[in-house]
């Protein structure tokens, strides 16, 4: 059975990929009580290709937003793996976004909007969240964005 979140994703043309396996000694997610903590997700597309680059140098804000959107899709894939049913999500509590950017780039919040907007599109009001958007000098594998999430479960 498909719930309302899966229907919204389908209406957006989004098919959740298989969740990425951890690349080191950590868990992709942890459930503690009614909270689901998802480790930082990278911007990989359905084929597994990573969106790499640095905002303010090789990537525009719009390209950064595309990377953030991919991260959000991968966060939802991990949430589905953790819960078995996205209907268990009571709300998205917080996103923390890291943007690979030059020292003079100051549009990190605009970049992370790519993820925030998708979460609201997919989850409705349950997708409204607290957030941090931070510029960093480098990210793993040279990716443009990495985003982690905290969800509350029903």
Number of strand elements: 5
- Compute the separation of the termini in Å: 18 Å
**Major sheet: arrangement of strands:** 1-2-5-3-4
- Biggest pleated sheet: 5 strands, mixed
What is the fold-level CATH name, i.e. the topology? 60s Ribosomal Protein L30, Chain: A
Task: Give an overview in words.
This protein is an alpha+beta fold. It has a single domain, classed as RutC-like (60s Ribosomal Protein L30, Chain: A, 2-Layer Sandwich), CATH 3.30.1330.40. It contains 3 helices and 5 strands; from the N terminus they run αββαβαββ. It has helices at residues 4-11, 61-83, 108-123; strands at 29-32, 35-41, 89-100, 130-136, 145-153. It has a 5-stranded mixed β-sheet. Strand 1 and strand 2 form a beta hairpin. Helix 2 (61-83) crosses helix 3. The longest helix has 23 residues, at 61-83. The mean pLDDT is 96.
């Amino acid at each position: 059975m498909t719930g309302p979140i899966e229907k919204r994703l389908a209406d957006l043309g989004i098919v959740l990929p298989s969740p990425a396996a951890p690349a080191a000694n950590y868990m992709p997610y942890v459930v503690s009580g009614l909270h689901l903590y998802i480790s930082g997700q990278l911007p990989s597309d359905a084929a597994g290709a990573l969106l790499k680059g640095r905002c303010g140098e090789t990537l525009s804000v719009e390209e950064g937003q595309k990377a953030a959107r991919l991260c959000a899709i991968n966060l939802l894939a991990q949430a589905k793996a953790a819960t078995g049913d996205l209907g268990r999500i009571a709300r998205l509590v917080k996103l923390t976004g890291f943007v690979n950017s030059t020292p003079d780039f100051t549009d990190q919040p605009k970049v992370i909007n790519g993820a925030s907007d998708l979460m609201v599109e997919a989850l409705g009001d349950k997708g409204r969240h607290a957030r941090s958007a931070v510029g960093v000098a480098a990210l793993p594998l040279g990716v443009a964005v990495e985003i982690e999430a905290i969800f509350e479960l029903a």
